[in-house]
Design brief:
With about 130 residues, this protein is mostly helical. It is elongated and about 75 Å long. The N and C termini lie far apart (about 65 Å).
């Protein structure tokens, strides 16, 4: 029974994940091309925080209780973007480091095969048997 509930919950979660705009944007930020946009995307937390404050003030002024739910959603989205900025920056630095190491390893491999240093700038994938 517990497995069935867990399975249904997971399926609903992944079905709705593609429909939520903030999750779609955060998924795009975590790609290799999107990592550079993580820190500027932190600025999206500002409108979400302002919307949360507005909804909270509406509730305090005697508005509908549904504004509490909206305030919670807006605050959650603001926190997601605030956390995504530093995470994508750290991940970008890690990826750039791995790419630099791969370039260095490729250059060492070319030098080790007897190619001259002038070919290290642009690695050529040719066979020596020809």
């Amino acid at each position: 029974m517990f497995g069935l509930i867990l399975d249904v919950t997971a399926r609903i979660h992944y079905a709705l994940r593609g429909l939520m705009p903030t999750n779609v944007l955060l998924d795009a930020l975590h790609t290799r091309r999107g990592l550079k946009w993580g820190v500027p995307a932190m600025l999206l937390a500002v409108p979400y925080a302002l919307a949360a404050v507005f909804c909270t003030s509406q509730v305090e002024a005697g508005g509908s209780g549904w504004f509490n739910l909206l305030a919670l959603i807006f605050a959650w989205n603001a926190l997601k973007f605030l956390v995504a900025g530093p995470l994508t920056l750290m991940r970008l630095l890690w990826v750039l480091g791995r790419e630099a190491n791969a370039r260095r390893r490729a250059a060492r491999a070319l030098l080790g095969e007897g190619f001259g240093p002038e070919l290290v700038e642009e690695p050529v994938l040719t066979s020596r048997r020809a």
